[in-house]
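Q: Is it fine to ask for two folds in a single conversation?
A: Yes, each is treated on its own. Send the first.
Q: Here.
A: Result:
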Amino acid sequence: MMRARSLPLLLVALATAPLLAGCGAQAASQADSQLGTRLTVFSSLPLTGPEAAAGQQILDGERLALGQAHSRAGRFTIGLHSLNDAGSEGATGGGAQGASGGGSATANGGGSATANGGGSATANGGGSQAATGTRSRAAHGTGSQAATGTRSRAAHGTGSQPARGSGSRAANATGSQAAPGTGSEGAKGATGAEGAKGVTGAEGAKGTTGSEGANAAAAGSEAAWGRGQTASNATLASRDRRTIAYIGDYNSGATAISLPLTNQAGILQISPRSPYVGLTSSFDAGQGDPERFYPTESRNFVRLLPGDPVQGAAQVALMQRLGVSSVYLLNDGEPFRTPLASIVGGDAKQAGIKLAGEETVELSGATGESHFSGVVEAIMRSGAQAVFFSGDAGEGAAALWRDLYAANPQLLLLGTSEMAEPSFTSAIGAAGTQTYLTTPVLPTSHYSRRAQQVLSDFRRRYHAQPTSNVLYGYASMEMVIDAIRSAGATADERQAVIESVFATHDRGSVLGGFSVLGDGETTIARYAVDRVHAGAPVFWQELSVSGPHVP
């Protein structure tokens, strides 16, 4: 069985260095001062680059939920700061991101920011940066902690809930902040690569991981998100004393950078995607995961989209539906994707499906016809009926798909939700006829009556056709708002809001009913299969997913 490569230890260590530097500077009681009635939710998503369409619809879903709540939760006014985590590589825009519904606005990719709806404004990703001055560390609880360690996914939800602890309020930092409600810019600081240095304490974006060539593999596709930009976003949120929640990031590699920062600051983090199993569980995860993402040893992260174990079970259910008796497993060696191939292999074996082989393929430089000749020949010799690939969905993967189809037009080609994008499906040509892609993003018509009303409201407000990504954004913001309401008078205590979310049981939402488990997973487990038609991913069937590691 293939094992995930160990994530470089410095990936998290250096990303968290700015927050750890000031720990112990202030007594915990000093973090408990009242802050008035304004709280801020940060949103960090890819708003430029190849995943911009999905990121924008998630963000618009957040705005819609906040607007329908009139930017209120109990006695608190909620502002929204939208940040682009695509980094300088993709941040080509300049204007401010509008925060509809009374939230604040941020500039992504450069330039100054203006405030919408009375909130504050902060420039990000090439404009001004928040000051990187000394901050205090709020003490976190000493009571019961969320279960971590080496437990298996079968023990899902059996750990105790995160500790209430000292009840540190949202005032976890003393760095310079943009003045709420004034439309002022963030504290002037370094820009571009120097901005990344201010966050990571190292050279540019490299400082987040502290290594060179290995960083690209450990951190994922730079075309989709930026390491330095993600660290900057999470640091900015952590140093804003009014921050009550952080929605993001979209990619697992980005979340691996932001999560230790929000955890150290005691901020609730909800991701609408980021499926890497090691963010919540040690099951088939990289070495030291998930503990390295939780420096306080208390859980603050919830993932709404089903994680790798659910997709693994969905892949095996698909193989059974297609009558597959033998499968060849491929991965691209990227630490956040390799575990899914291991999970699929284990589940396939348990289902009586033969593993014809397994291999790591190098996708970079896949321009010539002979680039994949070795792996293609091995697959042909194995007699496998199907190939499952977990990896980047760029041109290299499309070239691999075309080569496999050319070698055997009857070979079934199975891919992940990352590949269920037009950028991939439009590049694989005739191989699309043999392609099956599992995805947790169902057609909008498959969601509840309440979800249909939200989608209708979206059409009226934005004059655009929504995808199901809108629902994930809406559900994320709605969960934050409801947690603040549930926390009542202590809603400006970050830990109280975290506890409120982790107490979620049989929650009704636009995504359907679900509960939050002790490790941050939810019980959402719906999965679908897309086929390819006219170069685009098209819904084929919904799967019934079950298994020992499915919540």
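Q: Second one now.
A: Result:
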Amino acid sequence: MTETTTPAKAAPSAPSSGTSTTAEKLADLAARTQQGLIAPAATAAEKQHARGKKSARERVEALLDPGSFTELDAFATHHSTNFGLDKKRIAGDGVVTGFGTVDGRQVCIYSQDFSVFGGSLGEMHGNKITKVMDLALRTGVPLIGISDGGGARIQEGVAALTQFAEIFRRNVAASGVIPQISLILGPSAGGAVYSPALTDFIVMAEGTSNMFITGPDVIKAVTGEEVGFEELGGAATHNQRSGVAHYQAADEDDAIDYVRALLSYLPANNLSEPPAWPISHDEAAAAFDITDADRELDTLVPDSDNQPYDMRTVIDHVLDDGELLEVQPGFAPNIITAFGHVEGRPVGVVANQPLQMAGTLDINASEKAARFVRTCDAFNVPVLTFVDVPGFLPGIDQEWNGIIRRGAKLIYAYAEATVPLVTLITRKAYGGAYIVMGSKKLGADVNLAWPTAQIAVMGSGGAVNILQRGALKKVAEEGGDVEAERARLVAEYEEALVNPWEAAERGYIDGVITPADTRAQIVRALRALRTKRASGPAKKHGNIPL
């Protein structure tokens, strides 16, 4: 929340009394534009380039379609006279706001300018942001915020500080109504971090992005701990440790490309459908043909339960062209959350990953998946769930850190969702984790399983140890072969219960399919669910276990 050096040039002075003719007024506008906008923009770009960053305007131009940006409040300035600020009135007051298009679709945007008062938020700065937020909500279009500032402008005191509340209130009002995406391309400190935290997606760039409530100096003064900016709140920290961010970009260009790609899966607002790409009649007719590539799935699951495989292979065979856009790929890798297309229509993917922690659910995976399911549900994106989960991760740390409360968030997300829900069980689906991962009785619309599915209260080994404890003890006392008897009992248990058939007989599974038929069956399900209409009981709001 500190001020940095500002450009030397201030906003243009008031027009002279001689600007009475139309020609003179047009000349005055040109002069003001040159002095107040064009020249400072060049200065800002020079300063930002020296830091290895784009300027605020360059970021807007890179993100939006060429020539589509319309700026708002370009000549707005602060009105403070404290601490000499009256001598530093700069057009725009440190933030560029307006609207434009991304791939021809309307969006609203703001971009903080670090070269003006360090990008700090003053009263007018905040007013500009809230004004464009109101416009986005009124017109029902996505809002993109580019953060590069040091927090509240100290010189403006409470007038600046209260602007955070104005912004936060609008973030909450817009939540679930329009997509909100935050690009952190510089510092975001103190109260400023909570606006991005309230948005749907946060994208950070390596080496230039920082987010923290209290900086390294304050932490050292209060706790004695020494930590650098990157370690405390850099892109790697928030993408791999805290889970605050959703994508760790290599640089600003990568971050901007990710945001453009992300928008292609999201609707303009909660009352519209996500953008779909048209498919030809031939493509639609061939959707149920099984290809050699589809048959590759028939040999994917190993014969040994303890041998992992890559769930991405299954996902790649289901999605159009095998293309997916992962969300939070560096956080909780034991579960995959991503966007993709099936028949040109966006879908969300939630999948256990056997290659990481055997695909178990822990606190981080539960919260990551719950957040993603709720985001898809808010914006009318169907959810495909791929299940191979041996259970919740056991451990003292998990219990003490609230796996009960935090794991319940995933239950809440699936049970609350009204978008089409299609679930496929490829192998393990044990105990409470089976229920949580989009099970039939939790509200999924279509539930499928491969013949390799194992739907049971627990794995066969653990079940036999509990159910046949007495029988195994007796064999040991009689000098028999305990391991041979255990193997026989395990095989017996697996034949009776660890399979998809009992669930299918009871209607908990809608179909047991060959792996090669997976995409075709999912296409059929999604087609059938396009007209799904569902709603919950009337209430103010639910009480999710936060």
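Q: Anything structural to flag on that second result?
A: Two points. The CA atoms of residues 88 and 386 lie 57 Å apart. The mean pLDDT is 91.
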